[in-house]
Specification:
Elements lengths: L5 E5 L6 H14 L3 E5 L13 H8 L3 E3 L19 H13 L3 E6 L8 H15 L5
């Protein structure tokens, strides 16, 4: 079985929300099935397009809110601190091992300082440790 692929998306990196929606639709079509994994601590805030209810309506079964991987330090200026990384990574790594593609979704525009890159790195390490090649 093929291992799933990890993608990342920061909603605020798309000032024009329509461009972000188009990008996500294209990505989902090319990599179906693609699960949108919301790792924001407050998914009901921000522009309506990116709020949890809107994403649930658009993605349905393929929308997952994973609170274990939310950034407990979001908005404090401190480095990212994941709520429960072991549990969250274990759960998503299981999905990747069975071939599910995952899109790590948050609001941050700058991936260099965003926790979604930390989550992606931890997932890659978990797959490497289990002998899964990427």
């Amino acid at each position: 079985m093929t291992t799933g692929t990890i993608f990342t998306f920061g909603a605020n990196s798309y000032p024009n929300e329509a461009d972000g929606i188009t990008y996500l639709a294209t990505l989902a079509a090319q990599h179906a099935p693609l699960y949108l994994v919301d790792i924001r601590s407050r998914p009901s805030r921000g522009p309506i397009t990116w709020q949890q209810n809107s994403l649930r309506n658009r993605w349905g079964y393929y929308y997952l809110w994973v609170t274990d991987l939310c950034d407990s330090n979001y908005g404090t200026g401190l480095p990212p601190c994941l709520a429960y990384p072991e549990r969250g990574v274990r759960s998503l790594a299981r999905r990747l091992r069975v071939g599910q593609n995952l899109l790590l979704f948050c609001a941050c525009a700058d991936s260099a300082v965003c926790h979604r890159m930390l989550v992606a790195k931890l997932l890659q390490e978990a797959l490497s440790e289990s002998g899964v090649k990427q």
